[in-house]
Amino acid sequence: MAPGALAFCSRILRRQLVLALRRPVDIGNPLLFFAMVVALFPLGLGPAPAALAGFAPGILWIIALLANLLTADNLFRGDFEDGSLEQLLLSPQPLYLSVLAYTLAQWLVTGLLLALVSPLFAVMLGLSASAIPVLMFSLLLGSAVLSLVGGIGAALTVGLKRGGMLIALLILPFYMPVLIFGSAAVQAVAGGMDASAHLAILGAMLCFAIALAPLAIGAALRISIDA
Fold first, then answer.
1. Which of 31, 76, 88, 94 is most enclosed, with most CB atoms within 10 A?
2. Number of structural domains, the chain?
3. Predicted pLDDT of residue 83
Protein backbone atom coordinates (compact mmCIF):
# COMPACT_ATOMS: atom_id res chain seq x y z
CA MET A 1 0.00 0.00 0.00
CA ALA A 2 1.45 3.37 -1.03
CA PRO A 3 1.95 5.88 1.79
CA GLY A 4 -0.11 9.05 1.95
CA ALA A 5 1.31 12.36 0.79
CA LEU A 6 2.19 13.61 4.27
CA ALA A 7 3.74 10.29 5.28
CA PHE A 8 5.76 10.23 2.07
CA CYS A 9 7.04 13.76 2.67
CA SER A 10 7.91 12.97 6.28
CA ARG A 11 10.00 10.05 5.03
CA ILE A 12 11.80 12.36 2.61
CA LEU A 13 12.44 14.83 5.42
CA ARG A 14 13.75 12.11 7.73
CA ARG A 15 15.92 10.67 4.95
CA GLN A 16 17.47 14.05 4.14
CA LEU A 17 18.20 14.74 7.80
CA VAL A 18 19.80 11.31 8.25
CA LEU A 19 21.97 11.88 5.16
CA ALA A 20 22.99 15.29 6.50
CA LEU A 21 23.94 13.81 9.87
CA ARG A 22 26.08 11.23 8.10
CA ARG A 23 27.99 14.10 6.45
CA PRO A 24 28.73 16.37 9.42
CA VAL A 25 31.20 18.36 7.30
CA ASP A 26 28.29 19.68 5.24
CA ILE A 27 26.64 20.93 8.44
CA GLY A 28 29.83 22.29 9.94
CA ASN A 29 31.05 24.18 6.86
CA PRO A 30 28.44 27.00 7.04
CA LEU A 31 29.00 27.38 10.78
CA LEU A 32 32.77 27.44 10.32
CA PHE A 33 32.41 29.98 7.51
CA PHE A 34 30.19 32.11 9.76
CA ALA A 35 32.75 32.01 12.58
CA MET A 36 35.76 32.73 10.36
CA VAL A 37 34.23 35.76 8.66
CA VAL A 38 32.96 37.21 11.95
CA ALA A 39 36.46 36.81 13.38
CA LEU A 40 38.04 38.54 10.36
CA PHE A 41 35.77 41.59 10.24
CA PRO A 42 37.26 43.23 13.38
CA LEU A 43 40.69 42.96 11.77
CA GLY A 44 39.47 44.82 8.70
CA LEU A 45 37.23 47.39 10.37
CA GLY A 46 39.24 47.90 13.53
CA PRO A 47 38.45 46.82 17.08
CA ALA A 48 36.38 49.91 18.03
CA PRO A 49 33.18 48.52 19.64
CA ALA A 50 30.96 51.34 18.35
CA ALA A 51 32.06 50.80 14.74
CA LEU A 52 31.61 47.03 14.95
CA ALA A 53 28.18 47.35 16.55
CA GLY A 54 27.04 49.69 13.78
CA PHE A 55 28.05 47.26 11.06
CA ALA A 56 27.02 44.10 12.95
CA PRO A 57 23.48 43.67 11.51
CA GLY A 58 24.67 43.93 7.92
CA ILE A 59 27.73 41.77 8.57
CA LEU A 60 25.74 38.96 10.18
CA TRP A 61 23.09 38.96 7.49
CA ILE A 62 25.60 38.99 4.62
CA ILE A 63 27.43 36.05 6.17
CA ALA A 64 24.16 34.14 6.62
CA LEU A 65 23.30 34.76 2.97
CA LEU A 66 26.69 33.55 1.74
CA ALA A 67 26.56 30.53 4.05
CA ASN A 68 23.22 29.58 2.50
CA LEU A 69 24.80 29.78 -0.95
CA LEU A 70 27.44 27.27 0.16
CA THR A 71 24.84 24.57 0.69
CA ALA A 72 22.32 25.39 -2.06
CA ASP A 73 24.17 23.50 -4.79
CA ASN A 74 23.94 20.17 -2.91
CA LEU A 75 20.18 20.26 -2.35
CA PHE A 76 19.23 17.88 -5.20
CA ARG A 77 22.61 16.88 -6.62
CA GLY A 78 23.05 13.63 -4.72
CA ASP A 79 19.61 12.35 -5.69
CA PHE A 80 20.15 13.44 -9.28
CA GLU A 81 23.39 11.49 -9.52
CA ASP A 82 21.96 8.24 -8.11
CA GLY A 83 18.74 8.43 -10.12
CA SER A 84 16.34 8.76 -7.20
CA LEU A 85 15.38 12.30 -8.24
CA GLU A 86 13.96 10.98 -11.51
CA GLN A 87 11.97 8.40 -9.55
CA LEU A 88 10.63 11.19 -7.37
CA LEU A 89 9.36 13.04 -10.44
CA LEU A 90 7.61 9.87 -11.63
CA SER A 91 6.03 9.26 -8.24
CA PRO A 92 2.27 9.78 -7.87
CA GLN A 93 2.91 11.84 -4.74
CA PRO A 94 2.51 15.65 -4.99
CA LEU A 95 5.82 17.12 -6.13
CA TYR A 96 4.97 20.37 -4.32
CA LEU A 97 5.10 18.69 -0.90
CA SER A 98 8.14 16.61 -1.82
CA VAL A 99 10.35 19.57 -2.75
CA LEU A 100 9.02 21.44 0.28
CA ALA A 101 10.36 18.58 2.42
CA TYR A 102 13.76 18.88 0.69
CA THR A 103 13.99 22.61 1.37
CA LEU A 104 12.77 22.18 4.95
CA ALA A 105 15.55 19.68 5.61
CA GLN A 106 18.12 22.06 4.11
CA TRP A 107 16.80 24.91 6.27
CA LEU A 108 16.95 22.81 9.44
CA VAL A 109 20.64 21.99 8.98
CA THR A 110 21.70 25.47 7.82
CA GLY A 111 19.34 28.37 8.49
CA LEU A 112 18.03 27.12 11.82
CA LEU A 113 21.53 26.35 13.12
CA LEU A 114 22.86 29.74 11.99
CA ALA A 115 19.96 31.49 13.73
CA LEU A 116 20.63 29.56 16.94
CA VAL A 117 24.35 30.39 17.03
CA SER A 118 23.91 33.99 15.85
CA PRO A 119 23.70 35.45 19.41
CA LEU A 120 27.27 34.30 20.07
CA PHE A 121 28.57 36.06 16.98
CA ALA A 122 26.40 39.11 17.68
CA VAL A 123 28.07 39.47 21.07
CA MET A 124 31.48 39.17 19.40
CA LEU A 125 30.58 42.13 17.17
CA GLY A 126 29.19 44.20 20.05
CA LEU A 127 25.54 44.13 18.99
CA SER A 128 23.23 45.37 21.73
CA ALA A 129 21.44 42.71 23.77
CA SER A 130 18.02 44.15 22.88
CA ALA A 131 18.64 43.50 19.18
CA ILE A 132 19.67 39.85 19.54
CA PRO A 133 16.11 38.37 19.75
CA VAL A 134 15.13 40.31 16.62
CA LEU A 135 18.31 39.09 14.91
CA MET A 136 17.41 35.48 15.67
CA PHE A 137 13.78 35.87 14.60
CA SER A 138 14.67 37.69 11.40
CA LEU A 139 17.23 35.02 10.55
CA LEU A 140 14.65 32.29 11.15
CA LEU A 141 12.24 33.95 8.73
CA GLY A 142 14.80 35.17 6.22
CA SER A 143 16.87 31.99 6.04
CA ALA A 144 13.71 30.01 5.22
CA VAL A 145 13.08 32.35 2.28
CA LEU A 146 16.72 31.96 1.22
CA SER A 147 16.40 28.16 1.28
CA LEU A 148 13.26 28.22 -0.85
CA VAL A 149 14.69 30.66 -3.38
CA GLY A 150 18.00 28.81 -3.39
CA GLY A 151 16.09 25.62 -4.18
CA ILE A 152 14.97 27.15 -7.47
CA GLY A 153 18.57 27.82 -8.47
CA ALA A 154 19.63 24.35 -7.33
CA ALA A 155 16.87 22.75 -9.40
CA LEU A 156 17.81 24.72 -12.52
CA THR A 157 21.49 23.78 -12.28
CA VAL A 158 21.25 20.25 -10.88
CA GLY A 159 22.31 18.73 -14.19
CA LEU A 160 25.46 20.86 -14.45
CA LYS A 161 28.76 19.62 -13.06
CA ARG A 162 29.80 23.00 -11.70
CA GLY A 163 26.62 24.87 -10.96
CA GLY A 164 27.69 26.67 -7.79
CA MET A 165 28.72 29.94 -9.44
CA LEU A 166 25.72 29.85 -11.77
CA ILE A 167 23.39 29.46 -8.78
CA ALA A 168 24.89 32.59 -7.24
CA LEU A 169 24.36 34.55 -10.45
CA LEU A 170 20.79 33.32 -10.82
CA ILE A 171 19.43 33.78 -7.31
CA LEU A 172 21.60 36.46 -5.70
CA PRO A 173 19.38 39.31 -7.01
CA PHE A 174 16.37 37.62 -5.37
CA TYR A 175 18.26 37.39 -2.08
CA MET A 176 18.69 41.16 -1.89
CA PRO A 177 15.21 42.06 -0.52
CA VAL A 178 15.63 39.52 2.27
CA LEU A 179 19.04 40.96 3.12
CA ILE A 180 17.72 44.53 3.10
CA PHE A 181 14.71 43.96 5.35
CA GLY A 182 16.48 41.44 7.61
CA SER A 183 19.38 43.75 8.42
CA ALA A 184 17.04 46.75 8.62
CA ALA A 185 14.98 45.02 11.32
CA VAL A 186 18.05 44.50 13.48
CA GLN A 187 19.31 48.02 12.85
CA ALA A 188 15.91 49.46 13.81
CA VAL A 189 15.92 47.73 17.20
CA ALA A 190 19.56 48.63 17.81
CA GLY A 191 18.61 52.27 17.13
CA GLY A 192 15.68 52.16 19.54
CA MET A 193 12.93 51.93 16.89
CA ASP A 194 10.21 49.38 16.16
CA ALA A 195 11.11 46.50 13.83
CA SER A 196 7.62 45.00 13.45
CA ALA A 197 7.14 46.40 9.92
CA HIS A 198 10.37 44.83 8.67
CA LEU A 199 9.55 41.51 10.31
CA ALA A 200 6.05 41.59 8.82
CA ILE A 201 7.55 42.05 5.35
CA LEU A 202 9.89 39.11 5.95
CA GLY A 203 6.90 37.04 7.04
CA ALA A 204 5.02 38.04 3.88
CA MET A 205 8.05 37.06 1.79
CA LEU A 206 8.09 33.66 3.51
CA CYS A 207 4.39 33.07 2.82
CA PHE A 208 4.87 34.09 -0.79
CA ALA A 209 7.91 31.80 -1.13
CA ILE A 210 6.11 28.82 0.45
CA ALA A 211 3.22 29.29 -1.96
CA LEU A 212 5.20 29.69 -5.18
CA ALA A 213 8.79 28.47 -4.78
CA PRO A 214 7.96 24.72 -4.62
CA LEU A 215 6.00 25.06 -7.86
CA ALA A 216 8.97 26.76 -9.52
CA ILE A 217 11.36 24.15 -8.10
CA GLY A 218 9.21 21.31 -9.44
CA ALA A 219 9.05 22.87 -12.90
CA ALA A 220 12.82 23.50 -12.87
CA LEU A 221 13.51 19.89 -11.86
CA ARG A 222 11.41 18.60 -14.74
CA ILE A 223 13.27 20.86 -17.15
CA SER A 224 16.66 19.71 -15.82
CA ILE A 225 15.75 16.02 -15.94
CA ASP A 226 14.26 16.23 -19.44
CA ALA A 227 17.32 18.12 -20.67
1. 76
2. 1
3. 79
